[in-house]
Structures are given as C-alpha cells and as structure tokens.
C-alpha cells in the first residue's frame, strides 16, 4: 500500500545533517509539499532519512523519479515506509487525538522491543566470545583434579532493555514510600490496576496496568522523576 512517507537509504554518512536535510529538501520539494523530513546522526540512523509528503501520490512519484539518483556520489535507495509517520498521523487525526497518542505508544513499544532484542543479541555474542576462555578454565580445573559445579550463565537482558509488558518494576524509591503515594502518581495513567509493595523490602515496588499502553505511558511519564531525594528507576517487570 502506498504511503506518504518515503525512506531514503545509502546516504553519505560523512555529510553534516543540516547540509543533508537542505539537499534532500531541494530535491524532494519538486514532487509535493513536504510535511516533515527526518535525518539523524545517531549510529543506527546514519545513512538514511525519511521524507513525509502530504499525499501518497507525491511519495510514489518521488520514489519512481529519484530512485538511484546520486547524492554526494552515492545512489539513493528509495522505498515506501512500512508504518505511518508521526507527522502523518498528527496531520490526519490531530495532535491531541487518542489515535495520535496510541500511535506514539505503539512506536515506543516497538522501539523498546528492538532495543531489548539488540541487547540480548549483544550479550549472546559476548557469551560466545567468552566461551573459549571458559573452556580453558575448565580444562585447568580438570587437570588439577577439580570439578566445577557452577552452571553456565545464560545471557540476561539489562533492566533498561527489557521488552514492554503491562507491569512496571520500580527501584530506588525513598524508604518511606507507600502504596498510597504510588497510587496517586500512577493512577492518572490509563488502565491503572494496582500497586504491589514488596513485604520486607524497601525501595522497590510493582505497578500493574490493564493494558500495555498504560504501562508504556507511565514508564515514560514517571521514569527519572525525583521522589524525595531519589531518582526513581522505572523498568518493565522481568518475565
């Protein structure tokens, strides 16, 4: 299905972002009104950009005519975006609409899911690289008549990159924090269900929501907030 957003890949990574955006604007503005143009300098986004037009027809014409056009000596690779952009949803549904808010939550959940998978894959590679050293250590112990009983450590995703789910895990809470305090903080988010304190443990708690979207919104809204003299850490519950 045609989309008003075109993805552009194979861009020259050494070009400064302002110059890149200026050049892309000059090229693509010939095909229609540009609603948004996104190009970032972070590592994962290097070499690519997104152009959001006011209609799918404009994007389609641009893709056909600009495909393989050399920009800074590299042929551009164009395609329709697989998902709707923020600018498109905002334009069609309105910035304050529930549809736009739901769109942002879905995008955030997908981004966090990809971060979790990337973190797990990175740990798997690290474990694979460490395997020869572990084998050597086992051989040394074996030659000395010692037998290791420790199980092999499985890769574990860091808290910050756990995949989204409907339960949040709170850490670094002030010792005096109680259920009522947390309910007043998290109860304003859609789908709030309950706060679960941990008996005998200070500084941590769980907050459960009816749906994933509520947990995502609460994590973004509360994470990093200062409560008392502590910065609250909010992650998803490890499952």
UniProtKB/TrEMBL annotation:
Lineage of source species: Eukaryota, Fungi, Dikarya, Ascomycota, Pezizomycotina
Keyword Chaperone: no
Principal location: nucleus
GO biological process, one term: mRNA processing
UniProt organism field: Tuber aestivum (summer truffle)
Recorded GO CC terms: small nuclear ribonucleoprotein complex; spliceosomal complex
Positions of the RRM domain: 4-83, 166-239
One Pfam family here: RRM_1
Name of protein: RRM domain-containing protein
Compositional bias annotation for Low complexity: 126-137
Signal peptide range in chain numbering: none
Database matches in CDD domains: RRM1_U1A_like (cd12246), RRM2_U1A_like (cd12247)
Tagged with keyword Phosphoprotein: no
UniProt region (Disordered), positions on chain: 119-163
Subcellular location: Nucleus
Superkingdom as given in the UniProt entry: Eukaryota
Protein family (similarity comment): Belongs to the RRM U1 A/B'' family.
Keywords: mRNA processing, mRNA splicing, Nucleus, Repeat, Ribonucleoprotein, RNA-binding, Spliceosome
MF terms in GO: RNA binding
């Amino acid at each position: 299905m045609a989309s008003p957003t075109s993805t552009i890949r194979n861009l020259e990574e050494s070009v400064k972002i302002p110059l890149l955006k200026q050049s892309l604007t000059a090229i693509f503005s010939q095909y229609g009104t540009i609603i948004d143009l996104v190009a970032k300098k972070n590592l994962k986004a290097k070499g690519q950009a997104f152009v959001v037009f006011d209609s799918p027809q404009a994007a389609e014409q641009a893709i056909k005519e600009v495909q393989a056009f050399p920009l800074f000596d590299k042929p551009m690779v164009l395609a329709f975006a697989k998902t709707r952009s923020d600018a498109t949803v905002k334009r069609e549904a309105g910035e304050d609409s529930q549809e736009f808010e739901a769109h942002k939550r879905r995008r955030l959940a997908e981004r966090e899911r990809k971060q979790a998978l990337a973190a797990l894959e990175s740990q798997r590679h690290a474990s694979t690289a460490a395997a020869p050293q572990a084998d050597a250590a086992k051989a040394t112990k074996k030659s000395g008549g010692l037998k290791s009983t420790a199980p092999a450590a499985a890769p574990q995703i860091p808290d910050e990159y756990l995949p989204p789910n409907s339960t949040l895990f709170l850490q670094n809470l002030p010792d005096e924090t109680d259920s009522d305090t947390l309910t007043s903080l998290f109860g304003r988010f859609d789908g709030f269900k309950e706060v679960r304190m941990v008996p005998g443990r200070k500084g941590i708690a769980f907050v459960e929501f009816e749906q994933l979207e509520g947990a995502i919104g609460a994590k973004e809204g509360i994470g990093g907030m200062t409560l008392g003299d502590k910065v609250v850490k909010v992650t998803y519950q490890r499952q």
